[in-house]
Predict the structure.
Amino acid sequence: MKNNPLYLFIILYLVCNTGCFVKYHIFPSIFGFITIEIIVPNEQINDGIILPVDIIIVKNTDQILELSPDDWFVSSERETLTDNELYRLAVKNGDSQRLKIKIKPDIERLIIYADYDIKNDFNSQRVIFPVEKFRYYYSVFVGKYKIE
């Protein structure tokens, strides 16, 4: 019985399908979702003005990365993104937030822009995360005049 090719095929089929079942059906809250935590200290940020923060999750990020954060917040492309591609936040002193976001498998990068009132160099107003296969948690620290 064990030398029968049909027996081996059935065993292989069951092992493969069980793995797919576990990945997509038993743990749907883990696979396909990420958690992003925006950590804001309990001190004055952005001179006390509410800070707009955008979390951008799109497949083609090259056009977005060409824009500085200042240009991003007034661009027409920002207005064309859907609710699943753009998460708009407004943070203030001590206002940490945690978001659980469904992410598509073809997404390679997360971009987070902050629109500080006092303009610094644009690298202090944006964070770029590569989306990694087994990384489900990302954190961003919002400082007085920069994010990291």
Helices lie at 5-26, 62-65, 69-72, 76-80. The radius of gyration is 21 Å.
